[in-house]
Design a protein that fits this description.
alpha/beta, 13 strands, TIM Barrel, 16 helices, 39% helix
Length: 450
């Protein structure tokens, strides 16, 4: 009923004719293309066949039986509008400009084995360079071994230290970038032979970096400029203005922004902060960022930056808002939530006679449909108690566990404003786990085949 209503609405709006064939099965995910091919009846005037999105698998058994294209439709009929209506050319998110330098804090306190594991994880998340953060006030005599280990595993390395002995050992071992240089150690940069990050002696007098830059330029030492991003409460807005002013003063100089100063010191989920800072870097041609992911609310910062740099590149190059390009950074809530109307839910409740409960969210409530029954409410415990009373044969432990798991997801979706779809994981952007194992459906499919 719900499908017919949705397709009829779309057909009137888009001007196409259609037919719907109902196959004798209650769970779409139990259908296989081979099973469908033996039961499908295609009218002669058909130009395309759409199979429910849940009926996954190779469509060749169906294609062999018909002479028109066969495609998977969406898994949720409420997404048919988007399926038919989104004709915009896809925008590539492969390109980006900004280099991500991921710092491993207190690297001297970590074993070489653990250091390599952390570095590999950061690279897999999107880091281009791994920065070894040294401990101020001490000398890390093993820094050369650490750099060599990472380099031997194909990892690019920078070193964050003002200790000359540490920096020398790191650069000899293959570190390609030194964080940081100011007037106190610029003379030693001549001996390192690698690129350096120039920071001001005093962020509030950042123009005095000019003398440090002149020394580096005269010695042909490559550099990038970092005027220092300060946390909120310590001059954050003024520090942003410094970056803009520095870009105007040195329009062609490479620049870096240490964005971890903000994400690590702000009680806010880091994705939005990272995105805005990456947008500023893209607009101001700041070609690299330094970040870390120590505090829990920023524990996925590298991957957030990796997605953000693609989105801001596409938006700014294309002159479009970064909207509807990707939902990988929409993590707490969802881009959109689709619900059946209460009228349709009532019709479904009457039509569904089998004992396999369908769980839906609508009108700020959880709805359980099955066996001709319709139980709704905002408390999963009360809903389950009511279902247990209505079930003619009771609810076995396996089914009870399944219903509890699904209603927990449904309740969480209501609380956060997320899309709930039965047997599907809640979406958390790039943090979404791989498809949940449909154990119940697997058992059903096994029983059907016996």
């Amino acid at each position: 009923m719900a499908l017919r209503q949705e397709v009829e609405r779309l057909a009137k709006r888009l001007g196409f004719r259609y037919s719907i064939q109902v196959l004798q099965i209650t769970v779409a995910a139990l259908m296989t293309p081979e099973w469908i091919s033996k039961r499908l009846e295609v009218p002669a005037e058909t130009t395309q066949v759409l199979i429910p999105g849940y009926a996954q698998g190779d469509l060749s058994p169906i294609q062999a039986c018909v002479s028109v294209p066969v495609r998977h439709g969406p898994k949720d009929l409420r997404n048919l509008d988007e399926y038919f209506g989104d004709e915009r050319e896809p925008i590539s998110l492969e390109r980006y400009d900004i280099q991500i330098i991921a710092e491993i804090n207190h690297a001297p306190d970590i074993s070489l084995e653990s250091l390599l594991v952390k570095a590999v994880e950061l690279c897999q998340a999107g880091a281009d360079v791994i920065d070894l953060g040294c401990n101020p006030g001490s000398t890390w005599h093993g820094v050369g071994d650490a750099v060599k280990l990472l380099k031997d595993n194909g990892i690019r390395v920078s070193v964050d230290s003002f200790e000359p002995q540490e920096v020398h050992a790191a650069t000899v071992a293959g570190a390609e970038l030194v964080l940081s240089v100011n007037s106190s150690n610029v003379s030693q940069a001549r001996d390192w032979g690698v690129e350096v990050v120039v920071v001001p002696d005093d962020p509030h007098q950042w123009q005095r970096m000019e003398s440090t830059l002149e020394i580096l330029e005269s010695a042909n030492i490559p550099f990038r400029i970092d005027p220092i991003l300060e946390p909120i409460g310590f001059g954050f807005a003024a520090s942003l203005l410094r970056y803009h002013a520095a870009r105007q003063r040195w329009p062609k100089a490479p620049m870096m922004m240490g964005i971890g100063n903000l994400t690590e010191l702000t009680d806010v989920d880091s994705a939005g902060i990272n995105f805005l800072l990456m947008a500023l870097c893209q607009e101001w041609n700041i070609g690299s960022v330094l970040t870390t992911q120590v505090i829990n609310w920023a524990s996925s910062s590298v991957c957030e930056c990796a997605w953000a740099r693609r989105l801001v590149k596409a938006a700014i190059d294309g002159g479009i808002p970064p909207k509807r390009l990707s939902d990988q950074l929409v993590m707490l809530r969802d881009p959109r939530v689709s619900e059946f109307s209460l009228e349709v839910i009532g019709q479904l409740a009457t039509a569904i006679k089998d004992g396999n409960y369908r769980i839906l969210n609508a009108d700020r409530k959880i709805h359980a449909l099955g066996g001709g029954q319709h139980v709704e409410g905002s408390d999963p415990f009360e809903i389950f108690d009511r279902l247990a009373e209505l079930a003619p044969k009771g609810i076995d432990p396996s089914h009870a566990f399944y219903l509890g798991y699904e209603m927990c997801k449904a309740e969480l979706a209501l609380q956060l404003g997320k899309q709930y779809t039965q047997d599907e994981p809640l979406r958390w952007g790039f943090l979404t786990p791989e498809m949940e194992q449909k154990h119940r459906i697997s058992r059903r499919r096994q029983r059907e085949s016996e």
